[in-house]
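Go through the following before class.
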Amino acid sequence: MGWLITKYLITSTVIVVASELAKRNDKLGALIVALPTVTILTMIWLYVEKQPSEKIANHAWYTFWYVLPTLPMFFIFPTLMQRYSFWVSLLISSIVTIICFWLFSLLLKQFGINLLP
């Protein structure tokens, strides 16, 4: 149980630090969030917990493919924020991201990469 609490504390600290930095400096906050800190922490936790190398490698592999269809959200959201409220912009961006992911998964399936569980 102590290990799980340690994981929560370290992981949540990274997110809180990133959001606090974003309050002070847009670019620095965005840079910190854009870094794959959660992925790196997850791979560290998997390694420390003695998960097989194949599982850790698969995590990195699928993370790459899952990130690509989410990128349009970071272009669409700021544009929508100029016209709509935060929540409406976030909702529309999220729906677009889900559609992009679904279409991307259909495309990759043609190449033997199955993203859906």
Remarks:
- Residues 86-109 form the longest helix (24 residues).
- Helices lie at 2-24, 26-34, 37-48, 53-67, 71-81, 86-109.
- The chain has six helices and no strands.
- The two ends are 29 Å apart (CA to CA).
